[in-house]
Every structure is written in C-alpha cells, then in structure tokens.
Write a structure and sequence with these properties.
Structural class: alpha/beta
Order of helices and strands: EEHEEHHEEHEEHHHEHEHHH
Strand content: 15-25%
Strand order of the largest sheet: 1-2-3-5-7-10
Helix content: 40-55%
C-alpha cells in the first residue's frame, strides 16, 4: 500500500500499486506509520517526497469500502469516520520536522487532492492527471479543517469558488498558473527527476527540523487551531 525508501537525506514515500490508492482506515494507518518512521529518523537535512505508482495519486476516501456498509446511514458513518481519522494525517504532515514535497503523477481527487496540498511543495505532470474536489458533485460538505486548508493554500477567492463550488478539474499546467502547484513537467520521469532534485537541494540547507515545523505551523494558525480542537475531542 505504501513503501518508504531513503536516499541520503531524502525519504521517498510511495503509494504503491496500479490502483486508485483509496484512502481508508488501512491506508491511513500505513501512511501514519511511515510518517512516524520518517520522523524518528529525521536529522538536519531530511526531506519527505511523497509520490505514487499508476494513473492515480489518490482518488480520495475509500468510497467502495463505505458502500459495503449494511445501510445508507452506516455508509455515512464510515465517511464521517474517515473524515475524523484523516485529520491525524493532516496534523502529522503539518508537524513533520522537514520540508515536504508531493510529486503528483496522476489524478488527485477529493481527499487525494487534500493529501497532496498538505505538503509544502506540489509538483505535477503536464501531460496527465488533474486535481479535483468532487464533494459538490457528490453532495458532501467540507469539514472545517479541510476548508481551512483550502483558504490557506489557495489565495484567490475566485479560484477557491471554481475548485470547491464548481468542481473544476485542474491539470498541471493550469494548477501552476493558478498558484496551486509549484511546477508541472512533461512526463512522469521528468517529474520525478525534478522532485528528487528539489528534495536534494532542500536537504543541502540542513535546516533545524523542529524550527522548520514550528514556522510552518505559524503560517497556518486557523488549520492548527482546528486540528488541535479536533485532537482534543478524540
């Protein structure tokens, strides 16, 4: 489901398999376990690079799993459960003591888009893949901590409107022009080469990871406040 490789100071976390990388309880547990491993091995100059195999970076919360519930209300409960436990991923990425990069080589929808956006840098392919918030099309509201992320990471109100209220699908070139992605590349190989090069450049700075994490959290006070409130209720 997820693998971890270390190249010098760069940790490469890969969502494995040629599938949709649905975000369910097992995925979240695996992802958090690897983030904990990265954090425990962190030193000055560590960087996290998250990427994936196949056509999808992630297609979001595990809807096939939710639909196996015995009733509609039970399926809704499963979705709410995923929303609740996914905040642990958000908190872990915000507090990780190193720069983080998402190399999105395929589609990133709903929670998959959110997962990518919780990284410090977002790189995409130009030729394939898009970002898409499907909630408006599926009739699902946004939890507070995800809405706060969107307000923090997408500065333009009109772009947020189009992403959240119109379900706009955004390719790599457009995402870069809109300031959502940092850069887009022609193919998967070029994307990964650029992502690794960025990670290695950041690693050479050898920043104090704890200071880096504290500064990151200070940039997103609303998100951190909501995550702290949610964690207190767990």
């Amino acid at each position: 489901m997820c693998t971890l490789e270390k190249r010098g100071g760069v940790f490469i976390l890969t969502l494995t398999g040629d599938n949709e990388h649905w975000i369910g309880p097992t995925f979240i547990s695996s992802f958090l376990s690897l983030l904990a491993q990265v954090k425990s091995q962190a030193t000055r100059g560590s960087v996290l690079l998250t990427t994936s195999h196949g056509r999808f970076f992630s297609n979001g919360f595990d809807l096939p799993w939710t639909l196996t519930a015995a009733s509609k209300s039970a399926a809704t409960d499963r979705i709410l459960h995923l929303v609740h436990i996914f905040k642990q991923v958000a908190a872990a990425l915000l507090s990780l003591p190193m720069p983080t990069i998402a190399a999105v080589s395929g589609h990133a929808s709903a929670a998959g888009f959110i997962l990518a956006l919780y990284h410090d840098y977002l790189l995409m392919r130009r030729d394939k893949g898009f970002l898409y918030m499907s909630e408006i099309d599926m009739g699902l509201p946004f939890p507070d901590y995800i809405a706060a992320l969107m307000r923090s990471k997408i500065s333009s109100a009109s772009v947020r409107r189009d992403v959240l209220l119109a379900g706009m699908k955004i390719n790599g070139e457009t995402a870069t022009k809109l300031g959502i992605a940092d850069a887009a590349y022609n193919d998967e190989e070029t994307l990964m080469d650029a992502a690794v090069a960025m990670a290695e450049t950041l690693a050479k700075r050898k920043w104090d990871g704890e200071v880096y994490a504290e500064i990151r959290k200070s940039l997103y006070p609303e998100m951190c406040l909501l995550l702290n409130e949610l964690n207190a209720k767990m």
